[in-house]
Amino acid sequence: MQDELSEILLASDVIACRVEEIAAELGRRLAPLAERDEPVVLVPVLTGSLVFTADLIRQLPQKMRLDVVTVSSYPGASTESRGATIRGAVPEDLEGQHIVLVDDIFDTGNTLSLLDRLVRERGAASVTICVLLAKPSRYEVELRPDLVGFEIPDAFVVGYGLDYDGLYRNLPFIGVLKPEVVE
Asked: What CATH number is attached to the domain comprising 26?
């Protein structure tokens, strides 16, 4: 698989250090809730954020509930977003809850903008958006993530949960696919 990459953009040790920093910052932001014994609801966007979420939550000391949502924006072998489509139910019981939306990448922003709107419509007390990667050059919405692991160039990346046609999620690092692989 590694021979299908043009470069390793983020090594696994670099990712691990940054996830630890993000968890510490998120923990600080959520500390007032913990002091009041108010749980947090983490809503990971599947399937891409699975690895990031698993590493993140092991470092958070707060009480939390996980309510996953599945959204598709890159169907099959596509490298261009086809728009966000909800594939699974968005949690209903969010009235008064403190929500952390967790995603692998903030590309156009359409997926998280849609989810942000939906959880706010369900009465969330607060919404924090946490992403591992962001591509500022591709933003199409006003919404911005609260916590970003890394800003990256506009390249098609895989690994650490990110895929191309369902493959490469198991790579422990984030790499850029060679153009001929995605053609």
From this structure: 3.40.50.2020
107 is catalytic: yes
> Domain total for the chain?
1
Q: How confident is the model at residue 84 (pLDDT cuts 50, 70, 90)?
A: low
For the stretch 17-61, pLDDT in tens is 999 999 999 999 999 998 898 889 999 998 899 999 999 999 998
Do residues 116 and 127 touch, judged by C-beta distance below 8 A?
yes
Within 8 A by CB and 6+ apart from 109, the residues are 139, 140, 141, 143, 144
Residues 6 or more apart whose CB falls under 8 angstroms from that of 177 comprise: 4, 5, 6, 156, 157, 158, 164, 168
pLDDT range class, residue 5, cuts 50, 70, 90 = very high
> Would residue 161 count as lying in a domain?
no
**Is residue 120 assigned to a domain?**
yes
Q: Which domain holds residue 133?
A: 13-30+39-72+84-154
Number of H-type helices and E-type strands within the chain: 3, 10
pLDDT of 182 reads 81
> Which of these is catalytic: 93, 107, 116, 163?
107
